[in-house]
Sequence to fold (307 residues):
Amino acid sequence: MLTRSVTVRAPAKVNVQLAVGGRRPDGFHELANVYMAVSAYDDITVSPSDRLTVTVSGPGAEGVPADETNLAAQAAALLAKHAGIEPAVHIRIEKHLPVAGGMAGGSADAAGALIACDALWGLESDRDHLMSVAAALGSDVPFGLMGGTALGVGRGELLTPLACAGTFHWVFAVAGFGLSTPEVYRAYERHRRQMGSPFTAADIPAPRPSPALLEALARGDHSALAASLSNDLEPVVTAFRPELARTLAAGRAAGALAALLCGTGATTAFLARDEPAAAHLARRLLASGSCASVLAAHGPVTGPRPI
Ligand code: C5P
Fold:
């Protein structure tokens, strides 16, 4: 039996735009999702074992399943199934990313496990194969493999890389609780029904990326990006979790160029002018008592890499 192990460092993401369209017959919502991978990471280590096992350690370990339901374990099992081999691997996840936090931490672990298992098993899968396995695991897993900056349409999995100049600096405020992605989408739909608005994909045109936002990314223009950040889920989530509206306000008061809900939440994201401004903002946000912890990060960064 081989004794080597492979460790992959997998980044989180922030959605600089999350535009939600209608619900499709398969239950997913049409999205125009502009993803940016950021320098906050989980480390995923795989090593040979007699069967598929998972351990989770690190500050975010609590609340992450350490069994075959873990998305990283599902990734290893699915990759092995396609290769016609047994998923005889131990997966160790060093968890730093918020759980149920809207930063795609679980998707990062799955993407990291795909890259790590592919290397451990010597499969040399091509990119298209890994992308299709990723899409079967979850809407955000393909971007988890890709990294950088990208537009995701469909349920988020149909990706086009985007031009992005320079580096953007962020602070993420981690809430003391998580939010369930399906519940957030259900709340969004309830809200549309209550407003008498259409809510099916047949009745709503497919959402589109904001031209001003794409231009801001391509030019590396912080002020223009700050002015064009948007997340359609934010009003709904802050309505049932008003403490997140307070966190967003605290970040704005602490000098953020802009603030928005990170994906489906419960993490909130704040754009800063540069790295010192982000460090200052992080300290002030933590001192405000409006979040459980903070992460400072920059983006875009590349996708999962062996370390
Ligand atoms: O694809 P993923 O497993 O991340 O999706 C989790 C859930 O989030 C889905 O079952 C669905 O309820 C909701 N979702 C959605 N529309 C999307 C992505 C996710 O409604 N585009």
In short: DSSP finds ten helices and twelve strands in the chain. The mean pLDDT is 97.
